[in-house]
Amino acid sequence: MHVFADPTNFDAFLSGFLWILKLTGASAVFALLLGVLLAAMRVSPVPVLRGFGAAWVNIFRNTPLTLVVFFCYFGLFSTLGLSLAEDLDLNNYWLGVIGLSVYTAAFVCEAIRSGINTVPAGQAEAARAIGLTFAQTLRIVVLPQAARSVVAPLGSILIALCKNATIVGTIGLMESSNVMKDLINSNGDAVIPIFLVFAGTFAAFLIPTGYLFGWLANRLAVKR
Amino acid sequence: MSTNSVLYDHPGPRARTRNAVLTLVFGVGLVALLWWVYRRFDEAGQWEASLWQPFAEPATWTQFIWPGLRATLQAAAVGMLLSLAFGIVFAVARLSDHRWISIPAGAVVEFFRAVPLLLMIFFVFYGVPFLIQGPVPAFWAVVIGLTLYNGSVLAEAFRAGIRSVPGGQAEAAYAIGMRKSQVMQLILLPQAARAMLPVIVSQLVVLLKDTALGYIVAYPELLQRGVNDLAANRGNIVAAAIVVAAIYIVINSLLTAFAGWLSGRTQRRAFRAPRPATDATVVEPQG
């Protein structure tokens, strides 16, 4: 434990997790918005929108996140000159958020679409019968019920997103995994405590989150 | 709701006009976006033939992409075998009646599911050498990390599968005098594996994608060889990333299509697993 008694190391540990939380928070919001929009596109009556949604999902679900993040840095930033902030850390942070969001949105889209499939067809038929348009049917009748049945999958996606945030370390952001690597390299005598502290912090956050979402899913499920 | 068309009526004349207008508006927007991307690429000089030329040369494929793809597939194949074994062992252990087996097994599975794969790879690659006083090859760092993470996810999939087998099956097996291990091996596991086959294959797609993390510890896989090393020689990082992404997409789409085909088959032939909790069917989008 002497490693973390050193205030420099402890601060590095804290700031590493702070980056993870910030990445997770911002990406979760963007991915959710984008994912709902994509899901609405995929079930819409307009073929071009459906095709766009399907293409997005197929491209990002099948490409490794490491490659997506890699491209955000070396492609968007280094080659195409997309700069998002003066500060280097902040720039890498936003590039990471872009990568995580576009990738995670594909999974959110699929989860919500599977949720839409759990809503009985009669509900939408009734909505149509009273004259609601497609957008109204989706917004007022179908999506609220779908949302309640996708709590558990969305929870899994959030947890995966938090773990995936470590991949932004690839482009130089000093998040947890990079901090752990540095600490291990300079403290070879304490590799096991270092790993247990970092891994344990993730486990301490994420295992309860998993149970919380499981409990919420049971509570919110539409009883049919 | 099985078909999406339930959400809207068969389009009449007005709806058809509206859809056509929407198609046009969105289509124009999309084309404008693509044009903008094209212009940005153009300004950065990304369409120069010299950047795309390497993909017409055999050397690019024989020296960079193919060796990288082979290394990716090797790590994925070994990782798949080991994580399937890990998954079966820990699923059975977690269902054991002996609490001194089931509780530690549960703790191991929960722990490795919650820890980012990258932390495990870093620990094996940078940390373990201090413990064993010798280097760990990048290949094993990647494979061990993949095995622990995906094995834990698969253990949960198998457990859900075993529990979805109707209870009468095990009772009948006990009634004809089978021992517990026989019931598990001969009755429960084969059916669970079959019922969970699509989930298992989807998890193997995740595993294949995760091998890209090998790039971070300099394992010469597809991202390392086909994008990083190739672009270091040719300066065509955008082009290389696009080509390699296309390769990943093709391979993973094939595996996903295989999973879909299997799912159709298992639904016809095996017993119908009572719809597993949605949690178990959603593959965790790691890496």
Automatic annotation (TrEMBL), chain A:
Q: Which UniProt keywords apply?
A: Amino-acid transport, Cell membrane, Membrane, Transmembrane, Transmembrane helix, Transport
Write down the superkingdom of origin: Bacteria
- Limits of the ABC transmembrane type-1 domain: 17-208
Membrane-topology annotation of the record: Multi-pass membrane protein
Q: Answer yes or no on keyword Phosphoprotein.
A: no
Any one biological process term the GO annotation gives:
amino acid transport
In Swiss-Prot or TrEMBL terms, this protein is called Glutamate transport system permease protein
Subcellular compartments: Cell membrane
Please list the GO terms describing molecular function. Answer: transmembrane transporter activity
The yes or no answer to whether the keyword Transport is present is: yes
Q: Which organism is it from?
A: Micromonospora olivasterospora
Which cellular component, as a GO term, is one annotated location?
ATP-binding cassette (ABC) transporter complex
**Membrane-spanning ranges:** 20-43, 64-85, 91-109, 150-174, 194-217
Q: Which family does it belong to?
A: Belongs to the binding-protein-dependent transport system permease family. HisMQ subfamily.
Automatic annotation (TrEMBL), chain B:
The answer to whether UniProt assigns keyword Transferase to this entry is no
Instruction: Report domain ABC transmembrane type-1 positions.
Output: 69-255
Could you list the residue ranges that cross the membrane? Answer: 20-38, 71-93, 114-132, 138-158, 195-217, 237-262
Family the UniProt entry places it in:
Belongs to the binding-protein-dependent transport system permease family.
Example of a GO biological process term = amino acid transport
Provide the membrane topology annotation: Multi-pass membrane protein
The protein's name: Glutamate transport system permease protein
Q: One GO molecular-function annotation for this sequence?
A: transmembrane transporter activity
Q: Sorted alphabetically, which SUPFAM superfamilies does this protein's record hold?
A: MetI-like
The family database entries (CDD domains) matched by this protein are listed as: TM_PBP2 (cd06261)
Q: Which keywords does the record carry?
A: Cell membrane, Membrane, Transmembrane, Transmembrane helix, Transport
Chief location of this protein within or outside the cell? membrane
Q: Give the subcellular location.
A: Cell membrane
Instruction: Spell out the InterPro entries in the cross-references.
Output: AA_ABC_transptr_permease_3TM (IPR010065), ArtM/GltK/GlnP/TcyL/YhdX-like (IPR043429), MetI-like (IPR000515), MetI-like_sf (IPR035906)
Pfam families with a match to the protein in the record: BPD_transp_1
Q: Which GO terms describe its cellular component?
A: ATP-binding cassette (ABC) transporter complex
